[in-house]
Amino acid sequence: MIPVERPDGLRILRLQGLEDAAPYRASFAGAYQDIFSGPPYHERIHASEAMGFLDAFLRMPDHICLLALRGSRRVVGFGIGVPVSARPDIARELQGLVPVPHAFYLAELGVQEPWRGRGLGRQLTDLRLSLIDRQRFTQALLRTSASRKYSYAMYMGMGFDDMGVYMEVPARRIDGTVTTDRRLFLSRILSSGG
Ligand SMILES: CC(C)(COP(=O)(O)OP(=O)(O)OC[C@H]1O[C@@H](n2cnc3c(N)ncnc32)[C@H](O)[C@@H]1OP(=O)(O)O)[C@@H](O)C(=O)NCCC(=O)NCCS
To answer: Which CATH number fits domain 4-189: 2.40.160.20, 3.40.630.30, 3.20.20.70, 3.40.30.10?
Structure first.
């Protein structure tokens, strides 16, 4: 993918592998911590864990890892996707409901607060959808907060359907407790035409 230059000066770049990620790992971790410590997730994530997540995604086959950058290396947003088969935790929940070998999981999406409301979240989702190999994958899936207050409307507006399937996800919260929060799966059929 050729980097996308946005009119607001942000640039969207695709990382192909661990080597490309080196200049952005620390800034990715900062953005990840920042975004997921706010609503609706309130998660406490160490920088080393966030870098570990990025590395793990980049090691998965057929990953799509996009970063939105300000200047040369400041990460202000990200959109990551991998085949469902690379995520046994997700595959287990959806086995029998979707064709796992042909389903692609939009695993992570985040935009830092000051950059929200300018179409970046939607663009990071559209770009990932456009980069999925339609010969192999027939469905895109994702998990969002079951409260439906947050990104739900964005995904509904993008043609996703509510699967009515929920999952409790445990996480360490900013107050130090470990609790679960309820997530909801959404899906979208991928047409072979794009
Ligand atoms: C969800 C998130 C990525 C959206 O990023 P963004 O850059 O603000 O999204 P966009 O500007 O592309 O907005 C897309 C649409 O969704 C709507 N939308 C986005 N976030 C919304 C929210 N929190 N509440 C209500 N509507 C919202 C926008 O109004 C917009 O609608 P429009 O195109 O009809 O005007 C961002 O709010 C975020 O990082 N949130 C915290 C992490 C998170 O929830 N990630 C998603 C997990 S599945």
So the answer is: 3.40.630.30
